[in-house]
Write a structure and sequence with these properties.
It contains six helices and 33 strands. The chain is mainly beta and 709 residues long. The chain has a single domain, classed as Maltoporin, Chain A. Strand 2 and strand 3 form a beta hairpin.
């Protein structure tokens, strides 16, 4: 059944890893994608759901003193008709989240001016050893049942969430009664020529047998050449870090198997394998372009970029166990493993070339927690998180850039939820982080005259607090006040590399960053209207930005970011729905260390003010259509003062989607950038470098047919 109120709030897998996925997820039948088993509370007339990302099994949305949003599989499916890029999908739906780079990197896509933690089924994807800024694009939309988003600094799952959390919950067969298959095939492209054509296939199954439930989802997407609004080819290696979504192939194999051991105990195994690789015939033409200053868009020439094809490959495995009615509550545990690799394009922004690098991350971790009532007066969640990680960044010719660094972290925590009558709910908690990094002695061999970095151990320790209150004005609306702290260790690998002098790791020692988040909000759910409004401010004494080329050194300064976020959905009639979002943020930093916040934060950190709006029309379950618009206002406080202080000019994008029942299945269409708007990608404008001025994609089409049986 189609919803009437949309929620705002050549195919080649790595053989060894695909074999591992198959072995771990073998089940009696093959695969499917389903609608989320339980709908978010904000959909009118639906029961509230538990938000797992809060670490509380009773974490209902209305009972959360903070900005929490749930995006279900149906809305992801709808947005995927416009773009399969998860970064762009989320930027269309989440207020306070920066715009997509429209490339393989999510550099410059911040949440409330800060980095956010990406998770897949609670498994962290970010790395503090070497922050590659590619962790948003480690899973395909077809593998996701819902996305849980917490906006604002939090410490629920450890360090990395100074701006918030994006948790991709993969599809499952829990609750399925019959075995259901879904098959989808589609094409996409632009009107310029056949080079833009791409394709998309998906096959899945979902079901259960006795105590066993299962879901397997296989998808593959091929994109063609991207053209801008002026019908010119967008070069694949235009941005810093290189690599584009154009001329690329994406594969995703996801499965989740659940087994009900007893009426009170459940075991779940989840596996997700993702690979995206680019094979481009077009590169940026920088032969006559000086690197400094902002200029016209970078042109493309028909020539393959140098080096090996950029790629991202990611494998996640997690085993979860829950036992209810244990020691007076619910005991939860998780074991997880991640194997991640990304290959950057050759760094040729200034035609000097220092080689082609790749970064790897391997991690194992464990979480245990116990959720119980305390004397009938409060609810408590307490536990311990543990993780070991190793990562490095080297050149494919064997040279070292960042050596293999080993990290061990653990954190005990406790969280309380205390009701006070029918109108008040209080929440408070504390978490203690301990992080140790073991760094070997090395030289950055990409330098002509490298210095020696003497190895050693770096230790970080921080106690983080949170407290919040909710006042239930009526059954339909509440206000909340929240204070929370987030913690992260800076990009250690980036701080250590590019050293031409002899130093020790202890001398470099990037400081850990603590971000304090304050917010005041209101939420309402009425017969035909649902809405929210939040004002926020976050501060840090060790905020992170990066200096200019060629080294892009890590810089830590005192900072403050503040802003406003709005959402609204209105059911005008049974067939017509309207809605939209608004967001505004601004940030200042102490650039000269004189104690005054006297300089605006750059566009790589602060997003343009933005409004979105949509109108949906669904007169029956047989067909529907939706139009949506996004308008970015100008942000021109910086005056184009070198990298990364470029002014960012706004633009307006209009998208159109629709679907209609045809035969036994559903025909779906999408048009992105309907009016072929010509614009420069916001992060590219912020870079303020001629050699990195990259245009956004012009009008594009998609058409697919999906059959459920």
């Amino acid at each position: 059944m189609r919803r009437t109120i949309p929620q705002r709030t050549a195919f080649q897998l790595g053989a060894s890893k695909l074999a591992l996925v198959t072995a771990l997820t073998a089940c009696p039948t093959l695969s499917f994608a389903q609608k989320s088993g339980s709908e978010p509370e904000v959909e009118m007339g639906m029961a509230p759901i538990t938000i797992s990302t809060t670490r509380n099994r009773q974490g209902k949305l209305a009972e959360t003193p903070g900005s929490v949003q749930v995006i279900d599989s149906e809305e992801l499916e709808q947005q995927a008709r416009i773009s399969s890029d998860m970064g762009e999908i989320l930027s269309n739906l989440v207020p306070g989240l920066g715009q997509s780079s429209e490339n393989l990197t999510n550099v410059g896509q911040q949440m409330r001016g800060r980095d956010f933690l990406v998770m897949i089924d609670g498994v962290p994807q970010n790395s503090s050893i070497r922050q590659t800024s590619k962790f948003v694009r480690t899973i395909a939309p077809e593998a996701v049942e819902r996305v849980e988003v917490i906006r604002g600094a939090v410490a629920n799952y450890g360090f990395g969430a100074t701006g918030g959390i994006i948790n991709f919950i993969t599809k499952s067969g829990e609750g399925a009664e019959d075995t259901t298959f879904q098959s989808t095939v589609g094409v996409s492209g632009q009107e310029e020529d056949g080079n833009s054509l791409g394709g998309r296939v998906y096959q899945g199954v979902r079901g259960s047998r006795g105590n066993l439930d299962y879901s397997v989802n296989l998808s593959a997407t091929k994109t063609g050449v991207f053209y801008d609004g002026e019908d010119d080819i967008i070069p694949a290696d235009g941005l810093i870090q290189g690599g584009s979504l154009s001329e690329s192939t994406e594969h995703n194999a996801q499965s989740k198997i659940g087994y009900q051991l007893t009426p009170d105990q459940r075991l779940t195994l989840a596996v997700n394998y993702y690979k995206r690789e680019q094979d481009s015939e077009y590169r940026a033409d920088r032969r006559s372009i000086a690197p400094a200053g902002k200029g016209p868009k970078i042109p493309a020439i028909k020539q393959e970029p140098p080096g090996k094809d950029p790629l991202t490959e990611n494998l996640n495995i997690s085993l979860n166990h829950t036992a209810e009615n244990t020691l007076g509550g619910t005991f939860s545990s998780q074991l997880y493993y991640q194997d991640y690799e990304t290959l950057f394009s050759v760094y040729n922004g200034y035609e000097t070339g220092s080689g082609q690098s790749q970064a790897t991350v391997n991690r194992i971790g464990a979480r245990v927690s116990h959720d119980r009532s305390v004397m009938g007066l409060a609810n408590a969640v307490y536990g311990l998180d543990f993780e070991q990680e190793e990562g490095d960044q080297g050149l494919i010719d064997g040279r070292t850039r960042v050596p293999k660094i080993e990290e061990t972290s653990y954190a005990p925590f406790v969280q309380f939820k205390i009701p006070a009558g029918d109108q008040w709910l209080f929440q408070a908690g504390v978490r203690h982080e301990r992080v140790n990094m073991d760094i070997p002695t090395f030289q950055d061999e990409t330098l002509a005259n490298p210095g020696t970095v003497q190895g050693g151990e770096l230790d970080y320790e921080e106690t983080l607090f949170n407290a919040g209150a909710i006042h239930f004005l009526t059954d339909e609306q509440e206000v909340f006040l929240n204070y929370s702290e987030g913690f992260t260790v800076g990009d250690v690998g980036r701080a250590l590399r590019k050293r031409e002098e002899d130093v020790s790791a202890e001398q470099v020692d990037p400081e850990a960053q603590v971000v304090k988040n304050y917010e005041l909000g209101w939420r309402g759910r009425f017969d035909r209207l649902q809405a929210s409004a939040t004002v926020f401010m976050n501060t840090s004494d060790e905020g992170v930005t990066f200096g200019g080329p060629p080294n892009f050194e890590l810089q830590q300064r005192e900072e403050r970011v503040h802003g406003l976020e709005l959402t609204a959905d209105y059911q005008l009639t049974n067939a017509v729905t309207l809605g939209g979002t608004g967001s505004y943020q601004e940030g200042r930093q102490d650039a000269d260390s004189d104690g005054d916040l006297d300089t605006d934060l750059p566009g790589t950190r602060i997003s343009n003010p933005e409004i979105t709006a949509y109108a949906g029309y669904s007169p029956s379950s047989a067909w529907s259509v939706r139009a949506q618009v996004k308008h970015l206002f100008d942000r021109k406080e910086l005056g184009d003062q070198g990298y990364p202080n470029g002014d960012v000019e706004g633009f307006t994008l209009v998208d159109l989607t629709g679907d209609v029942d045809v035969g036994p299945g559903e025909l779906r269409m999408g048009i992105s950038n309907l009016f072929d708007e010509q614009y420069i990608v916001p992060v590219s404008q912020a870079f303020n470098l001629n050699a990195r001025t990259v245009a956004g994609r012009g009008r594009a089409y998609s058409l697919e047919y999906s059959l459920t049986y």
